[in-house]
Amino acid sequence: MKDLVSALFRSIPSGVGSSRREHKLSHAQVDQVLDQGAAWAVAQGLGRQEDLEHIEAGGRLRGPDPRAVSDRAKERGRAQLGTLGSGNHFGEIQRVEEIFDQEAASALRLFHGQVVVSLHTGSRGLGYQVCDDHLQIMLEASRRHRIELPDKQLCCAPLGSPEADRYLGAMAAAANFAFANRQVMTDSVRRTFEQVLGRSQKDLALDVVYDVCHNVAKMETHMVGGRPRRLCVHRKGATRAYPPGHPETPAAYRQVGQPVLIPGDMGRYSYVLVGTQAAMTETFGSTCHGAGRRMSRSAAARGARGRPIVRELADRGIIVRSEGRNTLLEEIPEAYKDVAEVVDVVHGAGIARKVAKLVPMGVIKG
Fold it and tell me: What are φ and ψ of residue 94, in 5° steps?
């Protein structure tokens, strides 16, 4: 495990501003990634065609507009494809400790004792810059359209306005960059396991279970007042939980529902669930994305100062590699709610159904 974690830490750059020179994109390639998403990476030999069948929207949101992404954003993203970043982003080697729903687990190709890898990251500096670029535009649009804001971070523009159309095009492009970013990291994971364990990728069977957004706005059809309506559904810190039979649930999972990935913290456990019909009627096909914090980052860092976090986790059997100590202090397990309790609420409310519990064995962070 130490060898695997160290090798993953070398092959997947992490931390603030981390970059990957071997995948540095030309200006034309950046536009291709923004338009094509994960399919671009697969076309470069960084993945398999079947991977795309297990990614939300096939790894490409509709309607991207690379022209709406600023040169500054593109420049920030040029060398960041295949990188993890910092904060709560992570890569984890995990073990399937418990199965709650055998039928769903079989459909997701999960079994007790299996080793799995979870990756959590997004569109890196490119996506951050897209948001930053559009905040002032949206604030001005809110004023012009006389929209009262309880908080300026809720700035907005009416759908169909030039500001909204341009932002949605830029957002879809950034989401496609995120899909490509995770696809490149998936390829890195496969190559690393192959190298360290001395077994072929075919023998290792490192297949994609699912890749899903949790910070995006999407045009979707939902029932409102007894009739179908086309809505713009915003999910921030939330994830989609589509039910069995839904046309946008991947064909491989249509009998059991869309996979839902809910991470906890690096010291305890994470969960895999599937979406339900109740989510469609109660929450616009959505559920939570993670455990949620109990402590702010600064409070966690203050409380953990002086503690040997790496050794504490090693005593629990968890190997951790991190680019910076501050991130580890901010991400201590007790900074988060107990995800088991959160997942039990979600399961009890019927908006997602528990399938498997995963426990960490090795963690890389920024």
Answer: -130, 165
- What CA–CA distances, in Å, run from 17 to 81, 186, 299? 12, 20, 24
DSSP sequence for 265-303: -TTS-EEEEEE-HHHHHHSSSEEE-S--BSS-HHHHHHH
Annotated catalytic residue within 23, 134, 214, 289:
289
pLDDT of residue 51: 97
Please list the ranges in the chain whose pLDDT falls under 70.
none
Question: d(Cα 28, Cα 17) in Å, to the nearest integer?
Answer: 22
| pTM recorded for the entire structure | 0.96
The pLDDT score that the predictor gives to residue 23 is 80
With 0-12 / 13-18 / 19 or more C-beta atoms within 10 angstroms meaning exposed / middle / buried, residue 194 is middle
Strand partners, 320: 363
Q: What's the confidence (pLDDT) of residue 83?
A: 95
Distance CA 54, CA 52 (A): 5
Q: Which is it for strands 352-365 and 319-322: parallel, antiparallel or unpaired?
A: parallel
289 assigned to active site: yes
Predicted pLDDT at 366: 82
Is 274 within 8 Å of 256 (Cβ atoms)? yes
In this predicted structure, what is the pLDDT of residue 305? 93
Cα dihedral 345/346/350/351 (nearest 10):
160
What pLDDT is attached to residue 181?
97
